[in-house]
């Protein structure tokens, strides 16, 4: 979570700097409007994205006498035992979330109250259609402002036709361009993302850009720039309105006055838009979470094992007919049939390791024709390689601690990602992960299922795993052997 907050704030700061120094001075007001809104969403979502990165493949040297010397990574073997980190008081996990929820709720209630205040102010008032909007006549000297398609003006000023047409055109531009949607969206986003103070600057930039757009709409008519600027300066001391509405009395700044006389430079605009288009994917790549795939390392296998597993079988060699019959009979004898939830009968083969090894020896002696007979009966015979230790890099190990990316199984047991804080990267000597798809992702927040083995557990189970590497199944199933099929 801390990593996400840092990345989100840094990303929002960089995009704000780009806007301030590159985009803000250009008169491409609609582009800037959507850039600011997109930047806020971008900084919240991109740190959650994940990119699969290939890990560096390292050649592993496996000694010829691996059966008697099972370790190949001395750093992992000599690593210290896991050290517990529970000697310090730990803040309950729910407390930060509770504080976050309370603050967000208060801010959302504030927004709700402001909306009700604005809507209630038009209750019982005289409403007059005005082009695509509606004029709400207020009984007091209310400054002119708009909220969605409602424009609130003083009834007294309206009756005496004292409302300048430029003010009405300004508020009508706010209404037509749906600036209230931007304002409400920004306020709600701030309620949930109050931890990012830079969003306050985004809100200010968005509101100022709204004024640029409304001013530009007014100046597109017959009103002169100087005349309009004098009208704006006359409203400097007017009363301010609630934060959710668009008002003609929005603070007049040098930037706002300068934008009215800024000339459009299409060449500069094109270059700056192109820079933004290049910046966003680069920034997304830098900020996004990176997961490193565990590519199989190039291994120099032991000579004796290589000879045993890769003995060439000539087309003339074959096992006898009696051995073939005994091969099939043994598998059938050790197969039971179960009915699954869909009512289909599935074979489950349960063979002790010693017998599996004997059957594999027979299978290796078969010629291609006989192996095809085995395959035709939906029997799969497979022998896994000897397990080899391989410690992850520190960077990969730190990646595994992210619960939104990885679900962790340690030594065959599901554990929370925080359990890895008890270990060093060198304590892990075997690992693999698989990506979840479709129904497998239902009810899970993580994207990868991660299997880890510690150094001690590897040594404890090594002999058993070396002797139990043969997998014989029916119906063509090949994979990691479930522990339940062992006798």
Automatic annotation (TrEMBL):
Keyword terms, alphabetized: Membrane, Transmembrane, Transmembrane helix
Organism domain of life: Bacteria
InterPro entries linked: Beta-lactam_resp_regulator, Peptidase_M56
Region (Disordered): 296-315
Residues annotated as domain Peptidase M56: 167-259
Composition-biased stretches (Basic and acidic residues): 298-309
Signal sequence region: none
Coiled coil (UniProt feature): none
Transmembrane parts of this sequence: 6-22, 34-51, 97-119, 183-202
Protein name per the record: Peptidase M56 domain-containing protein
Species of the source: Dyadobacter endophyticus
